User: What shape does this take?
Amino acid sequence: MCGIIGYTGNRQARDVIISGLKRLEYRGYDSAGIVIGNGSIQLVKDKGGMANLESILPEMKGQYGIGHTRWATHGPPLKKNSHPHLDCKEEIALIHNGIIENNMALREELIQRGHKFKSDTDTEVIVHLLEELYHGNLEEAILKTVARLEGSYAIAAIHAKEKGKIVGARNISPLVVGIGKKENFLASDVPAILEYTDRMIYLLDEEIVTLLKDEVKIMDFQGKPVKRNWQKVEMNIEGAEKSGYEHFMLKEIFEQPDVIMDTFIGANLNTENGYSLNLKPDTIKIIACGTSYHAGYVGKYMFEEFAHVPTTVEIASEYRFSSITTSNPLIIGVSQSGETSDTLVALRIAKKRGLNTLGIVNIVGSTITREVDHVFYTRAGLEVGVAATKTYITQLIALLALAIKIGVAKETLGIDDARYLSNQLRKLPKHVRTILDGSEQIIQLAEEISKSKSMFFLGRNMNFPVALEGALKMKEISYIHAEGYPGGELKHGPLALVTKETPVIAIAVKDQTYEKMLGNIGEVSARGATVIGIGTEGDTELPKYADHVIYIPKVPPLFTPVLVSVVMQLLAYHVANVLGCEIDKPRHLAKSVTVE
Ligand code: F6R
Assistant: This one.
């Protein structure tokens, strides 16, 4: 989730790059840097945001260059980890967005051949590879380099001796070329360059682009030339920051297939030694607030199933009042911001009690990551919408990965089973895309639901916390009163509130809870409630019980919370949209809650 920009033309590149980087700051702001080429490489970079970079920026003459704003993934936000990165001879400068999966293996190999690394980043391996493979032509070196890279990336590079040339490459992470008159632009996002041109060429996966001020050439990763015409972008700058989506929340929901993959890659489950972990707790306690608490609650089922570790979940602000400690526990704090006071204080109390702590956190370098014994990063990138969506989904992925690892460490999960689960995890982005593609049905149902004053969400087992999260999302952005309940609990009181005015969202996927959920649907239908069932594709029974059915693809049971949650997010979003709510900034709420 970093921002990339490149410029070549007749203007002073410094000014174009700085103004573009300011527009990209919403993608990442923990460090920033710029390189201008002018026969040599002039580099300025530092930790901190654009205001800091501008305050230290000298006069830089030159008409081509690249710039970057960083969202830390490998290595804390420090000057040495900021982009651009240089090769040993300081002739090549490179910026990168994404994750290089095989960076550890490449780094070792390059160090053995004498390369000196200056940063903790995965990015730096690319520039050292380029240095080895460069023989006078940057695009040829990039072509050979990408053949060595695994992972998701968008990169841009310049060489001191190739005046006016920028070369970019894309695999999964976005990259767009802006076509000007005697000038051309390269960026991770349209808003960075929309001020200068509305003529764009969107690079596709496995493509390399070479920019000169009066020429743009594209080839694929086999070196075959590609012809592509530019498209006119009909967007203003504010719209472009949201990539054309009406709200950041919707954009972030649609980013989920990508960030699931990034978190999966970051968890290192795709390599042999990725399964080894030196954590074998006898019990686990998960502490968190709000949406993160719901993710943790789903995690409980994962740890119990894969690692056979009895797991409890506690609202972080309540943890201080409990005094019972089990033997050899692991305390897991889940927090997207890494700054939530309730969670931070609970983790400090756990540490004072001498307990082993682990944080599942999105923001690199945040307070929680500095205080816990172990950190497991989610890689959702910057989330602007106050209501957590992609950070929550990546917490589920991180919890799945951690449960698999602890299961392997405790030998409750065989390596073949772990591999099978990892392969299933790898397929989740595709399944999420299927749900996103089916948004039209959810938009229609949202119209109907938006007329209600109150509603219920029902689920059982691992989908009970998903019902809680569905209700939370609905109430916080649409202001419709919503409650989540375990299906079996309704008859113990809340059923008194169920009438034809209260729609019920019932999670009735094909798992061990299915028959019981059909029973619960019958109970609420008998009270006149309209039921929207969320079921497994191919289920022809559920439509006989529910008024409407939204299908999700078939996946292993513990993966269903991810897919059901995406349906719930879309439902809440579209209801709030019909009601004209201020979706990205719901009333009374803040993105990071730093008071107890
Ligand atoms: C709801 C939401 C909040 C947060 C909660 C904890 O959409 O975002 O409920 O989940 O405030 O925040 P973090 O995860 O930053 O600790």
The mean pLDDT is 93. The chain is about 35% helix and 25% strand. The pocket of fructose -6-phosphate is lined by residues 289-292, 335-337, 340, 343, 387-388, 476, 592-593 (CB under 6 Å).
